[in-house]
Amino acid sequence: MASRLQIIIEGVDKASGPIDDVTGSLGRLEKGSGSLLERGLSPLRDMLGFGLKAAAAGTAGAIGGLVAGIGVSTKAAMGMEQGVADIASVMRLTKDETSEVKDLITDLGVDPTLKVSATEAAAAIEMLGKNGLTLDDILGGAARSTVLLANATGADFATSADVATDAMALFGLGANQMEKAVAGIVGVTQSSKFGLEEYKFALANAAPVLATMGVSFDEFNAALTLSASSFASGMTAGTSWRYMIQNLVPGTDKAAQLMKELNFIAEDGTNIFFDSTGQLKSLDEIINLLKYGFRDLSTEQRTSYARAIFGQEALGALNAALEMNVETLADLVKNQSDVNSLNDAAETRMNTLAGAWEILEGIIDTLRIQIGEHFLPIWRDLVERFTAFLDEHGPQIVEWAGNLAEGLGELIDTYLPPFIAKLGEWWTAAGNIADTAGGMLTWTGGLLAWMREAIQPAVDFVREYVSLEDVLRGIGIVISAIVIPWLGGLISAWGPVFLVLAGAIGAVSLLRNAWEGDWGGIQGIVAGALNYLDERFGLLLTAIQVFGPGACKRFGRL
Predict the structure, then answer these.
(1) In degrees rounded to 5, what are phi and psi of residue 530?
(2) What pLDDT digit, counting tens, does each position of 29-50 carry?
(3) Residue 533: is it exposed, middle or buried by C-beta count within 10 angstroms (0-12/13-18/19+)?
(4) What is the pLDDT of residues 109-164, one digit of tens each?
């Protein structure tokens, strides 16, 4: 099969060459003729070339999509095959019974009124089997009822299967009553704030006691529906109803005495909540009796009696019962489990575009599985053949792998040591280069230090000169006021010398005056020059002298 697909695909891929030859020939015919008729071949040539290539590309795409679709369908069919096998294993089905389950899954998956894929239907059926339902129960409507429950409540299929089978088991309902039971559960979820998850907890906490004492499944559902607003959760609701019904039989002498005071227990010891045969009366009768017994009590007295007789946990259910409309309760008991309402609820929830789309997806999933089932034998044959090939030639494959590993080891032993040695030489050469670079940096640092020392006198001279203002002025005063008149003759004799000295003093005075007046911006120029030299060379020099030699030596030792 793979070879045939390869031939087709390669044939399509190689079609472009011959097609180009055909269109090229038409082009050459057009070029060689100048007539209007022959030039009319140009549109035909383009149309033919484009059409053939588009057809070839479309064929290749179609084949690729077909192959991908077959792969997806086969994978889905594999999953379904495994799901059916799991069901058969759990329920210990025969081959014929397994075939019946498979047909049921397909029927549910393509049902246009149900939102369920074949995969989901298989999971629901497996859960029903694990919960103890027989194949006849499942085929007789339990599976479809579970799907309806999930559709009507929006819950997942596993939870729906668990809740439905638990309710049936706890209240002793037969498989033929499952659809009615599911309708009752849906009625609670639609008429109260409790969803299926909360209903599950209420059922688990109340039903074991209520069902044993004689409360029916419909009565439980009706009571839960009317009292839901009095509880924070299904768990607390179930617990409260359990304690209230359970304590209709007094558990202590004090409780019995208080029940006598409220006329719940007659003088002869008869408990009015039970009939002459000892069976618990209907729930609406019980609530009427409770209302009558508590009718004349104040709120404080009612609370005191209720806590002493029924217990703190029962107060929520008792208070809800005392406020309950008995006629409404009776009507719910009678009509809440209407099967027609179940179908209507599921249909209403799914009567949207999103619901229709989900139904379509379920049908497509089922059809995909059915398509893939036709290819399962082919793929299974291929897998088994490949498995046999590996089993037969496994030792040769292992031997080949061993030879490959041995060859790689020899290759490493031969070429790795010289490479490592050469790598060491390269590393040593790199270290020498680093040492040389370190010496160059040290030399550069010395040169910059010498340059700094060379310009330092000039810097010091300017700074010292600026600070000698008072000294220079004092020398000028002494020479002009005392020394020059007193040594007039000496001055005359040494005139040229004093002229030079006086010129120097004058030049210094002029320089000082120019500095103070910032003539030509001399202060800024000098300060800028000094800052420039200090910023450019001072920090660089210090960094090189402190860190340069050590860093280069460290790099050279790597």
Answers:
(1) -65, -45
(2) 445 444 444 454 455 455 555 5
(3) middle
(4) 777 777 787 888 888 888 888 888 888 888 888 888 888 888 888 888 888 999 99
How does DSSP assign 68-102, residue by residue? HHHHHHHHHHHHHHHHHHHHHHHHT--HHHHHHHH
Phi, psi at residue 271, to the nearest 5°? Answer: -85, 120
Cα–Cα distance for residue pair 376/369, rounded to 1 Å:
10
Q: Pull the structure tokens for residue 337.
A: 């489990």
Written as six digits, the tokens of 479 are: 């020479």
CA distance 228 to 188: 9
Q: Residue 267, exposed/middle/buried by CB under 10 A (0-12, 13-18, 19+)? A: exposed
- Evaluate the CA torsion angle 264, 270, 275, 278 in order and state its sign: positive
How far apart CA 123 and CA 80 sit, in angstroms, is 10
CB contact at 8 A, 337 and 187: yes
The Cα 120–Cα 69 span in angstroms is: 21
Q: Please identify which residue in the block is written with the tokens 């009292």.
A: 227
pLDDT tens for each residue of 64-77: 554 555 666 666 66
Type and span of the H or E element at 375 = helix 353-466
- φ/ψ (deg, to 5) at 280: -65, 135
